[in-house]
Structures are given as C-alpha cells and as structure tokens.
Specification:
With 242 residues, the chain is α/β, with parallel strands linked by helices. It is built from seven helices and nine strands. The protein is 36% helix and 18% strand.
Length: 242
C-alpha cells in the first residue's frame, strides 16, 4: 500500500508485563503496512513493562509516576505532534484489542475523509469475546447516555481503540492539556469534542477480547473511575468545563 501519511501507534501501559510484548509484536506483525512507529507510554509501572516493550521493538517514554491513562495519551500526542505524524492509532496495552483491525480504523480516514474513527465492539461486524455481563451492561448504558446527549449514533462510547487525524488539535476548541483530563476523562473528552467541533466522526467494527477470569480485565477503580469517564460529557454539556 502506498500512502503519504505518517501513522503512529500509541499504546498507554501500566504494569502490563507479560502482555505488552505480545501487543507490540502483534502490531509489528499484523499492522506493518499501516504503522510507522510504535510508541509505548509506560505510566509509572512497577514491573518490567518498559523493558519488555523495548525488547519487542517499541519506542518507550516512561513517566516517573502513575499519572493516569489520559496523561499517558497526552504525552504520546505531544510526541506525535512534535515529530510531525499525521494520524494516531490508540490501542490498549492489555492485549484485548486486535491489531489486525487497525486497518478498519484507518480506512475511513485514508479513503473516506473522516477525521476521527471510534472502534465499536457493538456495531455490526464488531465482537465481544468473553465480555463480563457487568461490563456489557455498564458500557451499554454509558453509550446510550452519550448518544442522547450528543445526538450522535454512538454504539460504543467507552472503547479506547480508535484512530484520528492529529490536525484536530489545531482547533483551539479541543484542549487536552488540562489537568482534569489525566485519568479516563481524556478519552471521553476527545470523542465528545471531535463530535462537538463538527469533525467528520464515525465508528468502525472491532473486537474486544476479555480474559476468561474476571481478574485482570480492567484496571478501573469502581465508582472513582466510572465517574472519571462519565463526568466529561456532563461537565462539557453544562459548559462547566471546555
């Protein structure tokens, strides 16, 4: 495939030893035609996440302490903008996303003039492998709320597997450089603002695979992190935050 756009894969990671190497290798092997650089943001891990990522071929930036996934993604976006990348793909470091499906996220951007593509495990063609019932219910409720507030046909509002043109950050109405966006807030904020600022936004079907055990399928802290995902759409809608 011939293309002129520079594309970077962003992988935020916290204590993903044993998984991050697999993710990096899968991206290298399964998305080589699409990805020019793999960047892992080690968000203050206490294990060998950074070393494992480097050994498998990723560039790594490490935070001295755990700042949150939003802060990790922001660090990666800063790097991508500084190094003049055109498109970023964000993929989880926990091996729940399928790197072969990166092309599904990029195709609407490269061929159909979209600016932001949200991965969806719930739309036709998407899959949910071993999804816990509680996760299914909570993500469904959130997506319905997001859809009602935004009046946009969202089927999966919480999926962090997504791609976007980095030029969207030239719009001063999108300001990810705010401290209140350090944890899970940034992901919801970015999706909301991409729609609100009238960028061309769509969804693409992807697979989310959960471990068979309930242990380890998420690092979210109940209530605290649920609020961090929910509050951006409420605060932005009420114009308490921008």
């Amino acid at each position: 495939m011939r293309r002129t756009e520079k594309i970077i894969a962003i992988i935020p990671a916290l204590n993903e030893e044993g998984k991050i190497g697999i993710v990096v290798s899968r991206v290298k092997n399964d998305a080589a035609l699409w990805i020019d650089e793999i960047l892992v943001i080690d968000d203050g891990s206490s294990d060998e996440t950074a070393l494992e990522a480097r050994r498998n071929g990723a560039n790594v930036i490490s935070h001295n302490k755990n700042n949150g996934v939003g802060a990790a993604i922001r660090t990666a976006i800063d790097y991508a903008l500084k190094n003049k990348y055109d498109i970023a793909v964000v993929i989880g470091g926990d091996n729940q996303d399928n790197p072969k499906e990166i092309r599904r996220l990029l195709y609407p951007i490269l061929h159909d003039h979209f600016d932001f593509v949200q991965g969806s495990r719930y739309m036709a063609g998407g899959e949910r492998v071993n999804i816990p019932l509680f996760r299914w219910v909570t993500t469904g409720i959130y997506s319905l709320l997001f859809k009602i507030i935004m009046r946009f046909p969202v089927s999966d509002g919480t999926n962090g597997f997504r791609a976007f043109r980095l030029c969207i950050f030239n719009n001063n109405r999108i300001n990810i450089w705010q401290n209140w966006l350090n944890r899970y807030e940034l992901e919801a904020y970015l999706f909301y603002k991409a729609i609100e600022t009238n960028f061309n936004v769509t969804e693409a079907p992807v697979t989310k695979s959960y471990p068979l055990s309930d242990i380890g399928y998420t690092k979210m802290i109940p209530l605290f992190d649920w609020w961090s995902i929910l509050r951006p759409i409420i605060l932005l809608k009420l114009r308490i935050k921008t």
